[in-house]
Amino acid sequence: MRSLTEKPNHSPKKIFRAQAVRQAVRETIQDADTRLTLLDIQRRLSRYCRGDRKAVRSAIKELVDQQELMYVSDFGHTFIETSIHKPIRITTTIVLKPWDCTLEQDAGDIVVSLCYGTSFGSGQHPTTRLCLKGLEYLQQNESGLWRGEKTRALDIGTGSGVLIIAALKMGITSGVGIDIDPCAISEARDNIAHNGLSERITISSEPFETVEETFTLILANLRLPTLKLFLPQMVERVTPGGKILLSGVKSEELESIVKQSYQFGLNRVWNCEERGWVAIVFQKKG
After folding, report:
1. Which class for 251: exposed (0-12), middle (13-18), buried (19 or more C-beta within 10 A)?
2. Domain limits of the chain?
């Protein structure tokens, strides 16, 4: 037992060590190609921490207490993931944050405020992050897409509305988000309002099959069978020279959707992979 006069051992060396372990935990979770449990993280950091599992547990506890990380229960397992209760930088320029959280943003940042609910699109899943990376690619490399007074985007299966909001904050003039889930429609409308875009984005329960107008950019974060079913109509609904950004494709499925795209004369201009998922940008000739 430490005497009452003995000072706690908070030496600079120990403080630095604790900071280093916390950073190692952050990087391990961010760089993982799959979701991680506590045991997974301890195993991956075993050599770095010289088998000191207590140090890893302590670092995780501090990061959870600081709301940088959170526990997520899914299918009987508990995973440790980046928290949605603080701003999350998804790409070099795109940041997602809780709607009631203040943020000192950097010049050039695209900040999307979200009221997190049950709808898909919190930034936790690789497919959402890949879509946002695709939008950043388009903004930085396809300047023609953002020019003009009437550029318009369609987000199929909009969920939280995060993608259509980001697209408009990047420069698209107006947009439509469609979803068949009433909860998603309600949450997307709330998020659009939080971002001051209610006058420029329409959220609808209209099925994609009945959409008749054309768009400069079409976004779809859906699974492969639905993407392949919708792709012919996407080609009809995107303007000549317009872009189609798809996500929700497993890495081993990439060639399947690319092969189908050739039938419609699409040109693949970008793709990116994360944790076994891939997103693709196609361009329509014109």
Report:
1. middle
2. 12-82, 126-283
Q: Which residues pair with 79 in a beta bridge?
A: 72
Extract the tokens encoding 141. 């490399």
In order of 94, 133, 267, the CA distances from 139 in angstroms are: 11, 10, 18
What is the assigned CATH class of domain 12-82?
A: mainly alpha
Q: Assign domain 126-283 to its CATH architecture.
A: 3-Layer(aba) Sandwich (3.40)
pLDDT tens for residues 146-193?
777 789 999 999 999 999 999 999 999 999 999 999 999 999 999 999
Closest CA to 142 of 58, 73, 243, 220: 243
Q: Which of 109, 241, 99 is nearest to 169 (CA)?
A: 109
Give residue-wise pLDDT tens across range 232-256: 999 999 999 999 999 999 999 999 9
Q: Are 163 and 121 in contact (CB under 8 A)?
A: yes
Mention every residue, 6+ apart, whose C-beta is less than 8 A from residue 228: 256, 257, 260
| pTM for this entry | 0.78
**Which of 185, 184, 157 shows the shortest CA–CA distance to 247?**
157
DSSP class of residue 106 equals P
Rg (CA), the chain: 22
